[in-house]
Amino acid sequence: MEEAIRRRVGRALGAAIVVGALLASLAVWRQSWRHPRTDDASVRANLVGVAPHVSGPIVELAIVDNQRVAQGDLLFAIDSRPYEARLAAKSAELALVDAEVLAQRDAIAAAAATLASREAEEAYAADYLRRTEPLLPEGFVTADQVEEARTRLRKARAGRESAARQRERAEKLLAQVGDLNARRTAAEAAVASAQLDLGYCRVTAPFDGWVTNLNLAVGEYARQGQAVFALVDDREWYVIANFRETYLDVIRPGMQAEVMLLGYPGRRFRGVVQGIGWALFQRDGASVDGLPAVEPTLNWVRLARRFPVRIRLEPPDPERPYRMGATAVVTLTGDGAAPDP
Q: What CATH number was assigned to the domain covering residues 52-77+202-226?
């Protein structure tokens, strides 16, 4: 009798364990479906290489590695003496252009006065010839006098045309277009360019961030457009969490996310899903010599691919700052959670 009771109790207990395991598995599966979770995630930030706009030896280094800088803080300075000399030369050229412009305007005024004088002489010569020619038939003047009047008119006309060309040449040398003088505008542009280059000798932080990978010393030659170190953008931090593609149907932009960082155990951070990656690199199907490369075998077990989900983090806590590359565990919760499957 007791043996039968023990058998029934054992069977009931075994059945309860199986049912409990099934219910627990169903609950875990339902929870993971409603709130996807992954530990394949890391903290990211925008990394910007700091490069000077001009070349030259570094004469001042105002930062150290891993230092925090604010927007506008001096990072380093390049020897400005060559650019100061260039600015002085361009400024002197601008002053010379101003003097030449004034002289050329005086030349234009003189040419205009000469042209007016030649025009008056031509008008007088034409009027004199008009009054002299009718007197020739009546014998009041000789033919030589009429021919002399005609020669005087031709000479006055040639003088007026020469004066007009001289004035036109002086105006072209001035290079006046509308109210702008082309030569002075070019000189002003050269001065502005020299001023920019001189200002570029002091390299400042373009945003709030952290200095990283600083392997630089005073005296090193910095080249234009070549990054000398990197600056971590502290304005926005995010997490790249790789979720299996089976979860993509329940992940939506705007969903709340709970982030745990291994560097801060017990501390939970908040975030919002910004978007899901649209493409992954696939070795199978890549083109080789213009032809698609397809693997000749296909495994029986097909593993789900993981797509990156970008999660924008809340502003950093000064006592617990984010670090790029830190390992994270992400759970999607809150608004946007998927309905029951």
A: 2.40.50.100
pLDDT band at 288 (very low <50, low <70, confident <90, very high): low
148-184 confidence digits (pLDDT tens): 777 777 777 777 777 777 777 766 666 654 455 777 8
Given a cut of 60, whether residue 62 has pLDDT beyond it is: yes
User: What does pTM read for this prediction?
Assistant: 0.66
| DSSP string for residues in 111-138 | HHHHHHHHHHHHHHHHHHHHHHGGGTTT
CA atoms within a 13 Å half-sphere pointing along the CA-CB vector of 100: 17
What b/e readout covers 160-174, taking b as 16+ CB neighbours within 10 angstroms? beebbebbeebbeeb
Distance CA 25, CA 23 (A): 5
Q: Is 336 exposed, middle or buried (0-12, 13-18, 19+ CB in 10 A)?
A: middle
Q: C-alpha angle 35/40/299, rounded to 5°?
A: 100
In 250-305 the beta strands, taken as DSSP E runs, fall at 256-261, 268-276, 287-288, 291-292
| Structure-token match 């998927």, residue found | 338
Tell me how many helices (H) and strands (E) the chain has: 4, 16
Residue written as tokens 């360019």? Answer: 193
| Domain range summary for the chain, segments of one domain joined by + | 36-46+231-341, 52-77+202-226, 82-198
DSSP string, 163-191: HHHHHHHHHHHHTEETTEEHHHHHHHHHH
What is d(CA 169, CA 162) in angstroms, rounded to the nearest whole number?
11
Q: Which CATH number fits domain 36-46+231-341: 3.30.365.10, 2.40.30.170, 1.20.1290.10, 2.160.20.80?
A: 2.40.30.170
DSSP single-letter state for residue 324: T
Q: Do domains 36-46+231-341 and 52-77+202-226 have the same CATH topology?
A: no
Which H or E run contains 29?
helix 2-34
Strand partners of residue 142? none
Q: What is the CA radius of gyration of the chain?
A: 43
Task: Output 255 or 281, whichever has higher pLDDT.
Answer: 255
